[in-house]
Write a structure and sequence with these properties.
By secondary structure, the protein is α/β, with parallel strands linked by helices. 56% of the residues lie in helices and 18% in strands. The two termini are 23 Å apart.
Length: 552
């Protein structure tokens, strides 16, 4: 329930505060007094678009604040999920527009984005404005009416999860089929490339090692000659180096104790002798290992030629990169072999989810169809009540492809004159007929959903007399279980108010501002009489107004 509305620096409103009752609140006043401006300000805290042009004083910010009672379980849960002080007794919603144009929104003094703001306020308030009757002709709204009356909210939420999962499964299935098509196109090419690399049979680092080995074999004779010469000089010449070192060692060894430096020199000569002797043996061994082998050279040249060709073909530089390409090709080939199984699994998952979604949609459709006859009966009765005795409504449900709301296409059909010629509502109903029809439908829907506050901005356009009286009765009945706020020009509706607010213009120092005050019983009688007969109401008009006010 909207307990209080505070407006500061908005349009022609300087500062305004309205304390609403929990039942039927009526706002009346002359055209242009600011009634719709109040609704515009209210729209800001409901998440509607903010514009800097709405600032009265461009030097300071505009602030609109609504104080709601926190007695809606759904709102409390939403606040809890968003960490917005769900335990508070009141929900305070505030919207600020800076002179720069920047807009900020708050719930319980916590900044929120517009989406969060709308989520909260949509559960608190239903705002119906003068031209919202156009949505009555829209299929989505008509379907939502059936769902509200059928109590389908939880079922639709569960269905939408299934539908979303089914669509995701369908996309996976189709992606796999597309992948298989692509695989099939590339399979032969990949198979050829893999076979070529696999048959080459390269081991890791083979080409690099082969290059080194080939250089060695191509220079084998020169290397052997150098090694043979080295071994000869070290160990087999007429005066080999090793023999000379051994002789030097022997000649000095006998005098080692006679000079302090000789032992160290003798030791070093001995080490050099041992090292050179070892080098000579190693040179001889290496010399024996190296052999010029034309067959091996030819084999290495063939392998390298094949390797260079494949390196160039695949645009890489090393053996290991070639092997990585071979392994990647093998994975693609294995994927082709495995994808049929993946496709079957994905298709089975999609069909299972689709079947569950269709079953859920069938139940929702049955629930919708179940409320059609009662809806038609009740709306027809209410249309008679609001001065349309010959008008009738029919609901047509057609099965269409599965979508986010099921598989029903809903169309409200209308016959204004008992002609049995029902046509789509959007094509045949007049503005006044739509207004009354919308009120009838919303009054029925309000009984099925937990919506604390209903706001009607001039929904009574195009009606008068007995029809207006009956609209007032319907609104009064609605206000018995929830808060109703209504802007009206109809005295028959104003007479039903629990709280009657008069909106007026106040001129001071050539500045026009909007004011609102709650009327006493006597003031209500005068205001309603003026609505019937002008600024100076007749005695009859005053008496008629008194009867309207005291009729309840």
């Amino acid at each position: 329930m909207l307990k209080k509305l505070l407006i500061n620096n908005y349009a022609i409103i300087d500062e305004l505060e309205i304390d609403f009752s929990g039942n039927l609140n009526i706002l009346t006043g002359e055209t242009g007094a600011g009634k719709s401006i109040i609704m515009g300000a209210l729209g800001l805290i409901l998440g509607q678009r903010a514009e800097t042009g709405s600032l009265r004083n461009r030097e300071r910010k505009c602030v609109v604040e609504g104080v709601f009672s926190n007695d809606n379980d759904g709102v409390a849960e939403l606040l809890r999920e968003a960490d917005l002080d769900p335990e508070e007794a009141e929900v305070v919603v505030r919207r600020e527009i800076q002179p720069s144009g920047k807009s900020r929104a708050f719930v319980n003094d916590t900044p929120v984005n517009l989406s969060q703001l709308q989520q909260v306020t949509n559960m608190l308030v239903d705002l119906h404005q003068q031209f919202d009757t156009l949505e009555l002709g829209e299929s989505d709204f008509q379907r939502e009416v059936l769902d509200a009356l059928g109590g389908n909210a939880a079922a639709i939420k569960a269905y939408q999860r299934l539908y979303t999962d089914a669509q995701a499964a369908r996309r996976r299935f189709e992606a796999l089929r597309e992948q298989k098509t692509q695989f099939d196109k590339e399979f032969d090419y990949h198979q050829f490339q893999f076979s070529e690399l696999d048959e080459a049979g390269f081991r890791p680092d083979e080409l690099e090692e082969s290059e080194t080995e080939l250089k060695l074999l191509n220079n084998a004779e020169g290397i052997k000659t150098a090694l043979a010469k080295g071994y000869y000089e070290l160990a087999e010449s007429e005066e080999p180096v090793t023999r000379q070192l051994k002789a030097l060692y022997a000649s000095l060894q006998q005098y080692a104790e006679l000079h302090p430096l000789l032992p160290e020199l003798v030791k070093r000569i001995e080490s050099a002798y041992i090292e050179l002797q070892d080098i000579a043996d190693e040179v001889d061994r290496v010399h024996g290992d190296i052999n010029f082998d034309p067959a091996t050279i030819e084999q290495l040249n063939d392998r390298l030629s094949l390797g260079y060709k494949l390196l160039k073909k695949h645009g890489v530089k090393t053996t290991n990169e070639l092997l990585a390409i071979r392994d990647a090709l093998n994975e693609k080939l294995q994927a082709v072999l495995n994808i049929d199984e993946a496709i079957q699994k994905a298709e089975a998952e999609y069909k299972h989810l689709l079947s569950e979604a269709e079953a859920a949609a069938e139940k929702i459709s049955a629930a919708r169809k179940k409320v059609v006859a009662p809806l038609q009966e009740k709306v027809d009765a209410m249309l008679r009540q609001v001065g349309m005795p010959n008008a009738r409504i029919r609901v047509d449900i057609k099965k269409v492809g599965l979508n986010a709301t099921g598989f029903d296409e809903v169309e409200f059909l209308f016959d204004a004159n008992r002609s049995n010629n029902f046509n789509p509502l959007r094509k045949v109903a007049s503005g006044g007929e739509l207004s009354r029809l919308m009120l009838c439908i919303k009054s029925l829907v309000a009984q099925s959903i937990d919506l604390p506050t209903l706001i009607f901005d001039e929904i009574d356009t195009g009606i008068s007399g007995e029809a207006a009286k009956q609209v007032g009765i319907i609104m009064k009945d609605l206000a018995g279980t929830r808060q109703v706020i209504c802007i009206t020009h109809q005295p028959q509706i104003a007479g039903r108010a629990d709280a009657h607010f008069f909106v007026y213009k106040n001129t001071k120092a050539d500045t026009v501002t909007t004011g609102v005050r709650m009327l006493s019983t006597d003031e209500r009688i005068v205001a309603i009489a003026q609505m019937m007969s002008g600024e100076k109401p007749s005695a009859a008009a005053l008496e008629n107004a008194r009867e309207m006010v005291t009729a309840d």
